[in-house]
Amino acid sequence: MEETAKQPNHGAIVVFKPSGQVVEVQIGTLLSDAAVEAGLSLNLPCGGQGRCGRCRVKVEHGDVSHRSAARLTTAERQEGWALGCQAVIKGDAVIFVPEQEQVEIEFVTKTVGAERIALAADFKGEVDPSVRRAYVAITPPSLDDQTTDWDRLLRALSLEHGIREVGANLATLRDLARDLREAEWSVTAVLDMGDPERDTCARPRLIDLLPGDQTGRCYGVAIDIGTTSNVVYLVDLVRGKVIDRASAYSGQIQAGEDVISRIVFAQKRDGLNRLQKMVLKTLNGLLEELTSRNQIPASQISKAVVAGNTTMIQLFLALDPKTIREMPFIPTIGQPMAVTAEELGLAINPRATVDCLPVVGAYVGADITAGVLASGMHETDALTLFIDVGTNGEIVLGNRDWLITCACSAGPAFEGSGVRHGMRATAGAIEEVWIDARTYEPTYETIGNLPARGIAGSGMIGLLADMFITGIVDKAGKIARDLPTPRVRVGDHGGEYVVVWANQSGIGTDIVINEVDIENLLRTKGAIYAGFTVLVQSVGVELADVEQVFIAGAFGQYINIEKAIHIGLLPDMPWDRFHYLGNTSALGAFHSLVSRAMRHEVFEIAQKMTYLELSADNTFYDRFMSALFLPHTDITAFPSVMRLLKEREG
Amino acid sequence: MPVTVEIPKERWTGSIREVTLGATAEQGGTRAKTVTVGGETTLPFLHFEGEMPHTPIVGIEVQDSYPADWSPVLLAAWGDVLNDPAAWAKKAEEIGADVIMLKVRGADADGNATSPEQAAAVIQSVLQATGLPIIVRGPGQAELDNKLLVAVAEAAPGERLALGLCEDKNYRTIVAAALAHDHLVVASSPIDVNLAKQLNILISDMRLPLERVLMDPTTGALGYGIEYSYSVMERLRVAALTGDGMTQQPMVCFVGEESWRQKESRTAEGVPAEWGDIEKRGITWEIATATALLESGADIVVLRHPETVDVVHETISKLMAH
C-alpha cells in the first residue's frame, strides 16, 4: 500500500546525514524510497515489511509518521529513531543514516565428515556449444558481381561451412558494410546455432563479425544467481574449460535476505526494476572483474547460461514474482525463451543469447534442475537423495527412471537470521564448536581465526549437536539450568549458554545461544527432515533405502555430517553415503553452456521431475512436528544417536 | 438363507501400559485400595478383538477452596461441602468416585495466594478423609505448579499421587518430585500426537518408569473441539497398539473442567428458550463429552456433577458387558 501522491503538489526537502545528500521528494514518500532517490543504500533485510527492525534511521529534525514501529522501544522512538521502511515523510527533514552493515566477500574452505566429489571443472563430454565461430574469406564485390553484402556473407557461410538460413538483427546489419570492408572481406562470424532439438524452427543467428581468423577462441559465461551469493564462470567454449570464476554477495541482499522478502520488496514502488538493476549490477561487476583480469573484451563473450532459483530467475528477467508467493504458488514460466544480453542489460556482447535454465515449480528452480544435471543422479541406478540446504531446503529423490522433488521452507536460521548471535559465514564467524562433556567448556574455530563475532550456520549445527550430546539441552531443546557451569544461565529469552565471554569476543559482549534460537534451529532442521520423510513416503520407500545422498549448495559443504545427524538434520546412515557436490547450480549452467546435449538434458530433467507441493500435503505438518525434537521423536530412526546417548549415560 | 459374517479383526502388536494409582499401607501409603488403569490390547470396548482388563474409571474433582467461579448448577448440587475439601472428598467417595482429583487453585475466592504449606495441609486432610487414590493438579501455571506440587509431593511421600500438570515447561521439577517421593505424573501436552510422545520421552529420560505416567492429551468439550480431541486420542491409541512404546500411556481427561467452562453449561438467562433447562443442559453436556472421550480411549474421566457420575458409570458398565 503506497502512500505517495496523496498531496501531489507539496514537496519536502530531505537531508541525509552523514553523507549530506539532499533530495526533494513528495510528501507521503517512504523514507526508504527517499534514501534510494538520494542514491543511498539502506539495507532492508526483510524486504521492507517492518519486521526485522534493521533499517533504523534517526530523524534529527522534521516530521515523519510511522506506519509501524513495532521493532522500536518507546525510548528509541522518543529519541527519534524510525524504521526506514515504515516512516513516511510529512515535511522537510534531516535524517541520520547509521553505517550500513557491509557484506564481506569471504568464503570458508573447511569440510568435515564426508567425501567431496571433485566435480570436474573441465567438461568430460563432447564440447558442442551452441555458439560457433566460422571463418570466411569472401570474394569482394565488383561491378560484375553485384550481390549484396549480406547475401555475399551468407553464400560464403553456406559454401565453406554448410551453415544456412542465418538471421541477424538490424544493429548487426547496420555495422555489416563497414565491418566487412574494414576486415578486407576476411571475417570470423560468431553465430548462435540455437537448439534445434528444442526449437525446430531454430535458425543460426549472427552475433558478431570479427576481422580475420579468430576461430581459435570463443567465450561464454555460466551464471548462478543465488539468493545470497552470485557466481560467474568465464568459460572457454572451444576447449570446454572454465578459465576463471568470480563470486560476490548478491546486491539484492539490501532488499531482503530471503526470497520472500525480495518478493515483498518487488511489490514496492519500482521495486521490481530496482531488484533487476541490483542483480545486474552485481553480475556486471563480476563480469568486469573477469574480463579485465583475463584481458578478454566483454564483446567477446557470446553466450550466457543462467541458473538460479525461480524467484531469482524471475527477478533477473524482471518478471513480477508476486504469484510465486501467493496460493497456489505459480511461476510465470517454466522454460524462459532466450533473450539477448542487450534486452537485459547484461555486460557481454549485446547480441549474445542469455539462456535461463528451466524451473520446475515456485520453489524448485533452475538451480535444482542444473544441480541434478551436474550431479548425474538422473543417470544412475542408485536411489539418490539430492539436497540443497539454504533458506529453502530443496530436495530431489530418484534415479535414472524417475525424479520427485519438493521444497521446504526452512527459514534463514542457518544463514544467521532469527538467531541472536547468528551471522553469515564471514570473517569472525564461529564455524565449528566442540563442547567438553565434563566441564561444559567449548572449543571453537572462527573464520580467519579472528575474535568471534557470531555463529555461522555450520557452527550452529556443531554447537547444538554438542549441547545435546553433552546434556546441556534436552531432546526438546530446553537448556538444563542446574548444570555446574557459569556458561548456563537464564537470560531475556529463557535459558542460554555462553559460547564466548565478552572479553574474548570481537563484539564486546558475550556470544550466547538461547532457547528461542534453539527453537528456530529446530524448526529449520525439522522442516528439512520432514521434507525428506514426506518425499520418500510419497513414493513408498524408506529413508534407509537411499543409497547415496548428494549435498549441494554453498552452505552444504560446510555441514559436518556427524553433527548434522546428531541433531536430526540429516538421516542417520553411514557417512560414506554422503557426498558434497559444492555449487552444482553453477556447474550445471557450465555444462549446459558447453554442450547442447547437456542443455537438452536439463530441459528433460525439468520435464521429468514431479513437483510435490508440501502445503498441499496433509502429512507434512505431522512429520514436521515429529521432527521438532532432538534428534527426532522417532528415536529408532537414529540408531547411531541412540547408541551415543546410551554411552553417555554409561 | 443364513449368511455367516466374520467380523475382521485387527492384529495389534502393542498394548497400553498398566498404571496403578495410590498405595496401600503395605505398599508404603495409606490408601484403602489402589486402582489400576490401562492394559488394553485393542481399541476401546472392542471386546471381540482384544482385552480391556481394567474398566475405565471415574474421578471426581475436588478443589482446595470454594469454587466461586463454578456454574450455579454445580454449586447447588454440592452445597456446603464445597467449603471443605476433606468433606467434599468424602462425599465424592460416597457418590461413587474411583479416584479423587484434588485441584489446588493457587488462590482462594478472595484472591489470597495459596502457600506451599497450605497446599501440604490440604493434601493431608484429603488423604485422611478418603481412602481413594488421588490425582493432584496445580493451578496450571508452570512456576506456581512447581512450588505447590513439590510441597504436596513432600507432604504425602509414598502415596503414589498422580501429580499434574507436568508439561514441557516444568516436567523436570514435577518428575524430580515424583521420583523423590514415590508418586506418578500426569503428562500434559497440547492435543498433538507428536507433542504427547515427545513429553513421554523427556519424562522417561529422567528415569521415571513409564508405569508411573498418565497422559493428558488436553481435550476439548462437546462443541469446543471434541472432534479434534477424539481424532488425536484415537491416533495416539492406534500408535500405541501398533507398538510405539512412547504412546502407550493410559489417558486421563479432565472432562468436568472443560464441559462446565462455557456458556452452555453456565448461563440460564439471556439464551434462547429452546436451549431448555440449564441444569439438564449442563449435565447432558458433561455426559456427552465424557462418553465421546471414553470411546476415543480415555482410561480416566474426571467429572464434576454427581448425576453425571451415575450416568457415566452406567454407560461404562454397559460398554464393558460382553
Give a written overview of the molecule:
The complex is a heterodimer of chains A (650) and B (322). Chain A is of the alpha/beta class and 650 residues long. Chain A folds into five domains: 11-96, Beta-grasp domain (Ubiquitin-like (UB roll)); 131-211, Ubiquitin-like (UB roll) (Roll); 221-325 and 337-359, Domain of unknown function (DUF4445) (Nucleotidyltransferase, domain 5, 2-Layer Sandwich); 367-412 and 522-649, 2-Layer Sandwich (Nucleotidyltransferase, domain 5); 413-514, no CATH class. In chain A, the strands form six sheets. A seven-stranded mixed β-sheet of chain A has the order 6-26-25-16-17-18-27. In chain A, strands 12-11-10-13-15-14 form a six-stranded mixed β-sheet, sandwiched between helices. In chain A, 51% of the residues are buried. Chain B has eleven helices and ten strands. Chain B has helices at 72-78, 85-95, 116-129, 142-155, 171-181, 193-205, 226-241, 255-259, 263-266, 278-295, 306-320, and strands at residues 19-21, 35-37, 57-63, 99-103, 134-137, 162-166, 184-188, 213-216, 251-253, 298-303. Chain B is globular and about 70 Å long. Chain B has one domain: Dihydropteroate synthase-like (TIM Barrel, Alpha-Beta Barrel), CATH 3.20.20. Chain B has 322 residues and is of the alpha/beta class. Chain B starts with 18 loop residues before the first strand and ends with a helix. Chain A binds chain B through residues 474-476, 478, 480, 622, 625-626, 628-629, 633, 635, and chain B through 168, 172, 192-195, 197-198, 201-202, 205, 246.
Quick synopsis:
Chain A is α/β, with parallel strands linked by helices and 650 residues long.
